[in-house]
Amino acid sequence: MRNLRKHLMEGGKVQAGFIQAYQAAARRALLLDYDGTLVPFVVDPGQARPDPELLELLAALTAPVGNEVSIVSGRPRRDLDEWFGSLPVGLVAEHGVWLRPKGGDWRMLRVLTTEWKVRVRPILQVYVDRLPGALLEEKEFSLAWHYRRADPEQASRRARELLDALAGLTRNIDMQVLEGNKVLEVRNTGVSKGSAATEWLGGLAAEFILAIGDDWTDEDLFRALPPSAYTVRVGLADTVAQYYLSNHTAVRRVLRELSQSAPDRGMSPAPGPPHPNLPAARSSAI
Fold first, then answer.
1. DSSP state letter for 266
2. Cβ–Cβ < 8 Å for 141, 188
């Protein structure tokens, strides 16, 4: 990895070359992480629902002909279905386990098993009990130990202990541990956002590709894309991404500017019906 060196915004404005590349392309693909990228982190992951402004922004990004947008998330598919199912976007759930192309059905990208959960769940539950504020989230093909609500110092100690406890177990079974933002997640190996992105991009012939994410699971996504892609890491960290943005507010500002700068040739002739969760009036830009 290399240190982040290029900010996508200069003097409070999105770099002109970036906007020009977007406008010059006939087909554009946007791959967007969710938690920490489009929305801020919250104490309870179940409370991180998209706000009306975000839903409106995504609808605007999908409006131009030639635009393809995909939410590439660690979220379970039930969340993504509920929140974005009626928008014309692609969806990737559980860091690449599930893929739902725009207008299509969910499908698994490889056959996985869940027998390992019987061995791993009790270990995670022990550390839920040992750390006040920790919680266990169960997805279809992964288990996540969240500690955002816990005392930071105590949580740091317990996280290291849990990593040690899982290390010996995952060496003997086809599993891996992901270290996210205040979360440890156990999942099958061989699954990644990068493989899901490659599958989603196949056949799109996109001339402009943009990927934005905030943690190391998104590094798999960045590595899978061609050198010509714009890759953006949210927050300061070592990364293979070409650019960085400070937070989700900056991400929305960049996406808003893209939505307002679509070339005339790409605009749809007439808007469709509004998303059912969108506000009646257009919210102000970020």
1. G
2. yes
Give the burial class of 219: count Cβ atoms within 10 A of its Cβ; 0-12 exposed, 13-18 middle, 19 or more buried: buried
What tens digit of pLDDT does each residue of 177-204 get?
A: 988 889 999 998 888 999 999 999 998 9
Classify residue 113 as exposed, middle or buried by CB count within 10 Å of its CB (0-12, 13-18, 19+): exposed
Q: Please, what sign has the CA dihedral across residues 180, 224, 230, 3?
A: positive
Q: What does DSSP assign to residue 35?
A: B
pLDDT in tens, 221-258: 999 999 999 999 999 888 999 999 999 999 999 999 99
* Residue with tokens 């975000």, as numbered in its chain: 54
- Name the pairing type of β-strands 243-245 and 230-234: parallel
Closest alpha carbon to 201 in 192, 214, 210, 188: 210
DSSP lists the bridge partners of residue 179 as 184
Burial (0-12, 13-18, 19+ Cβ within 10 Å), 222: buried
Q: Hey, which residues are catalytic here?
A: 33
Report the greatest alpha carbon distance in the chain: 59
| SS3 assignment, position 123 | helix
Asked if residue 41 lies in contact with residue 182, where contact means CB atoms within 8 angstroms, the answer is yes
10 Å Cβ neighbour count for 114? Answer: 13
CA distances from 247 to 7, 35, 254 (A): 12, 11, 11
Domains of the chain, earliest start first: 2-110+191-266 (3.40.50.1000), 117-188 (3.30.70.1020)
